[in-house]
Amino acid sequence: MNPFKIMGLIGLALCVVSAFFQWEYMALILLLLGLVIGVSIATEDSVRVIVTAAFLLTFANVLMNIPEVGRYLTSIFSAAGTLTAGGALTVISRNVWNRFKP
Predict the structure, then answer these.
(1) Rounded to the nearest 5°, which phi and psi values hold at 29?
(2) Mind listing the pLDDT tens digit for each residue in 23-58?
(3) pLDDT value at position 36?
(4) With 0-12 CB in 10 A as exposed, 13-18 as middle and 19+ as buried, what is 72?
(5) Is residue 75 packed enough to be buried (19+ CB in 10 Å), middle (13-18) or exposed (0-12)?
(6) Structural domain boundaries of the chain?
(7) What single-letter DSSP state applies at residue 41?
(8) What DSSP designation does 58 have?
């Protein structure tokens, strides 16, 4: 198992933990972890990562309507959106750099 997959699994575990324990720097940690993980994302998966990040961040609040567990699911999927957004930012930055590099 490569280190980027291990960091991805750690990131997903942090997403679940963040639903139950609030820590003010969790979003920053997830974003930075996503930025590092984004380095390993293949070019052909760029669109998939960007769309996944957008949908997770947009539609996570829909889960709030589920009784009892809705707020936990919303928190988990919002955190996963933050993690994925970090990867999407890396992919977008890499694509912009490759387009305009000398």
Answers:
(1) -65, -45
(2) 899 999 999 999 999 999 988 989 999 999 999 999
(3) 94
(4) middle
(5) buried
(6) 3-100
(7) -
(8) H
